[in-house]
Design a protein that fits this description.
Length: 349
């Protein structure tokens, strides 16, 4: 089943170090997964913003979507119906319910070596704590729900979570289904393959190779579109998709695929976990991560956008400090290439 250049699983697995293998980490993550409580959001009955104007602006944005990272609402600290519903939850249920990853190293992951009963850690998790602190006055007032890549949008639409903070790229297809905050991180799609592989990047060296992507990811949709357009070799096998992106790394370690395509920021962290693989070539797209929420949660979108403005200004305990702690080791000390540009917002009047 291995394509040309694929390596057997024993050599790769034996070379793993630090974590005791990503596969083992995934098992630990599964064992300590949080108990999910389905608490649908209360439907707003009276809009506090100019809802008609907002909906019109969003519809226009979807029909003419060239820069999806700019299709968001202007910041506000005001409480609307969505935020009030969150604040009115009683007792232990008075928490922000957030969909996250639990196995993306340095983004949202459970560190089995932390000695803290494998608490969630990472860049995305820091942002969640900041949002909870602003809305509920307590950074720990969060109920984390670990969700796979292909369940991010359904979890929002079904009301299982208030928001998703899970390395989720803002794109035109998704803004038809959910609302996004302004960008909080810049990245791009990149190829990950064994160091010994002849694959050199997103080019003809992928011909007749088997590539793994996460189902519902921008990586898969990009490969599919490029193959139809003739920009990716027709012989490249892109049929291998998995629920969680980390599963692709496991497939690569086992020699079941020849390469992985995912966000460069995630791929860099995976290369740090497994010294036998590396990034091949440069990023071939430019993408932005955003916080995803329900389409009608205008007040929550605006509030998160205000939090992001303040978070980026906070040099001591904000965006830069979180980058330094979690990502500088894999992406480099210069955070400028990963920091999104100054946000732009929709006109709603």
């Amino acid at each position: 089943m291995n394509g040309p250049g694929a390596k057997g699983g024993t050599t790769v697995r034996d070379a793993l170090r630090g974590w005791g293998g990503v596969t083992a980490m995934a098992v630990v993550c599964a064992l300590v997964a949080l108990v999910a409580l389905c608490l649908p959001l209360t439907t707003a009955t009276t809009a506090t913003q100019s809802t008609t104007a907002t909906r019109t602006a969003q519809t226009m944005a979807e029909e003419d979507c060239e820069a999806p990272e700019k299709q968001t609402l202007s910041p506000s600290s005001a409480d609307g119906d969505t935020i009030r519903a969150i604040k009115n939850r009683e007792g232990e249920k008075r928490k922000l319910i957030v969909g996250v990853d639990q196995n993306s190293y340095r983004w949202g992951y459970r560190n089995p070596n932390s000695g803290k009963t494998a608490e969630l850690e990472g860049f995305d998790i820091d942002l969640v704590h900041r949002i909870a602190e602003d809305i509920l006055g307590d950074p720990d007032a969060v109920q984390f729900k670990a969700i796979p890549t292909d369940q991010r949008i359904p979890a929002i639409q079904d009301g299982r979570v208030d928001m998703v903070v899970r390395t989720m790229t803002i794109n035109c297809a998704r803004i038809a289904d959910v609302a996004f905050s302004a960008p909080y991180f810049k990245t791009g799609q990149q190829v990950l393959a064994p160091k010994s592989s002849p694959v050199k990047g997103y080019d003809d060296t992928l011909a007749d190779r088997k590539i793994c992507t996460a189902a519902g990811s921008t990586a898969y949709s990009t490969l599919e579109a490029d193959q139809k357009a003739g920009e990716l070799p027709a012989g490249t096998d892109i049929s291998t998709t998995v629920p969680n992106q980390l599963d692709c790394l496991v497939r690569l370690q086992l020699g079941e695929v020849d390469a992985v395509v995912t966000d460069g920021a995630l791929a860099a962290s995976q290369a740090a976990q497994d010294p036998t693989v590396q990034l091949k070539g440069d990023a071939f797209t430019a993408e932005y991560y955003g916080v995803a929420m329900k389409k009608d949660a205008d007040d929550l979108v605006r509030r998160v956008n205000q939090i992001l403005v303040d978070y980026r200004k906070d040099t001591a305990n904000g965006w830069q400090a979180s980058y330094d702690q979690w990502l500088s080791a894999t992406l480099g000390k210069d955070a400028k290439k990963s920091e999104p540009p100054a946000p732009q917002y929709l006109r709603t009047t």
